[in-house]
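Next comes a single protein record:
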Amino acid sequence: MNALQPSGRPWTAGPGHGGPTVLRILLGGQLRRLREAKGISREAAGDAIRASGSKISRMELGRVGFKERDVADLLTLYGVHDRDEREAMLGLVFRANAPGWWHNFGDILPSWFEVYIGLEEAACTLRIHETRFVPELLQTEEYARASIGLVHPDASAAEVERRVTLLMRRQEILRRSDPPQLWAVLDEAALHRRVGGEAVMRDQLRALIDAVRSPAVTVQIVPAGHGAVAALTGPFSMLRFAETALPDIVYLEQLTSALYLDKPADLVVYKRCLDRLSVNARPPTATAGICAELLGRQWEREG
């Protein structure tokens, strides 16, 4: 049985991907709507479950797990007494707390990135702007190994291999029968960096040529003449979901944390930025040719 939206219509967990991350966000969003409909503050809601207002905020954002007792107490506070609706929402608590496959990599994954992997799995569209490296979902294993070594210079060889394995597992979403639409805008400078050496870059460029043959993958390259715009913007991702109850989310990764933005005003700014970058970039049909030209230059240097 599905939980109900404020309109009385059932809502679901989306297209079947993303698992507990999506369920936590959906359940948290429903609790927030119920609280706001009653005009109850986060602090008052926190008191009802022997917690703080900040704990309520984290629950409503789907950033923490849920206790069945807490959800039951909140539903009572919010005036949800219908037995079927309560059972439906409480039934989601167990599913929302179930670990995703990425929890097996908890030794190398910070909690703030676990959220992103769950969202990545659930997204129907991924718009990515990258200035440093080839987008992670399009990296070859050797390129990934080299770039991970650069980003984590103190990591042991075993940890680097664990991170490579994790990335290869993430890339499986592009091989699903219903893959998300990946649209990447890439600064050309990233393709000139010899990450891992000439042989690794040759294989990576060939992999990009193969990748853009897929109808699910679009790559645009920002030429050097427009690189300043790309560099000032910095890398970020915008994720869109088939589930209408989930807002678009912008992901900004920092050295020791990440930002998840879903306010309409923020989304408008980042969507305009992506659109502007796309206009300044070469068309998708030019990407394979640009990569082939770079391959040719490498052969000339070696010759």
About this structure: Residues 19-38 form the longest helix (20 residues).
